[in-house]
Amino acid sequence: MRWFSGSRAKNLIYGVILLLVISVAAILAYMFHGWSFSDALFMTVVTVFTVGYDEVRPLDTVTLRATTITLIVLGCTTMIYLTGALVQFITFNEIQHIFGNTRMNKQIELLKNHTIICGFGRIGAILARELHAGKSEFVIIESNKDRFAEAKALDYLCMLADANEETSLKQAGIDRARALAAVVSSDPVNVFVTLTARSLNDSIFIVARGEEPSTEKKLYQAGANAVVLPAHIGAEQVASMILAPTIASAIQYSDRRRQMELDLRTLGLELVSAVAAEGSAFAGLTVEEIERQAGGSFLIAAIEHAGTRLADRPLPSTCIKAGDGVTILCRIGQPHLLDKFSVSQSEA
Known about the structure:
Layout: H1 2-32, H2 37-48, H3 62-109, E1 115-118, H4 122-133, E2 138-142, H5 145-153, E3 158-160, H6 166-171, E4 179-182, H7 187-200, E5 205-209, H8 215-222, E6 226-228, H9 230-243, H10 245-253, H11 255-266, E7 269-275, H12 287-293, E8 298-304, E9 311-312, E10 325-331, H13 339-342
Parallel strand pairs: 1-2, 1-4, 2-3, 4-5, 5-6
Antiparallel strand pairs: 7-10, 8-9, 8-10
Helix pairs in contact: 1-2, 1-3, 7-8, 9-10
């Protein structure tokens, strides 16, 4: 399909170049016979485009008549060729667009238990890459033409549409989807998308992105199962890299750990890290006491004690002290669980 499209574009370009060459040659020929540039240009244009106005000057010599006859034959033939190439190019692109949309709609209709990604910005692109690596089916809804083209170039199944609209979500198969990620860079849009998605599918798992902490509550009220605050998570990761480098590097850079995280995400779980702050709710408690207070909402997977470079698998009796790095296993999109580690009770 691309080869055919390219050949049609080349035909169009060749036609334009040929027409320009013939026109320039004709203008120079008329000027050689003493015509002004404006007269030569006018005569060439009305002849090539077969308008047929009266000649601006009499064609009273054999060479002028021969020049005009040659221009009529070559110019008109080139215009016919150029017109055909233009119609062919436009028609092919329209057909390709129609068939492309039809093929995409058929592929979406076959999807079941897939994920709908609303927005192909920085977060959406990373999410699509991770889902693709995990061989999980998904469809992207993006309203920006440039970002849509980027997603299409990666051979992702995508729609050029507004995720705010019910028709877009229905076309993406929200009634058959298992999850939806509202990761547009606008908080109001994510709230509205979450609200609309929840009204269309009561059982779908919705993960929503929030830029401002105040939006988190609104997203949960709109029907989100989990909320992700990229700025909040990013700041915690930086702190973890500084205060607990062994855990942070293991989570971020280990290929084995990365594959494990992909597997966990298919189960709706993730590994996150934090550093226990002085005076925080969990500082000074044992692993068993913390997990009991958490009511089973997370498990402590590893501890890096302050001042060491060793991350240990903790025993139930292990005490977590201020400055210790902690890795926990929890459901996706629950960064607020880390607050009892990283936030001092005096600040809460």
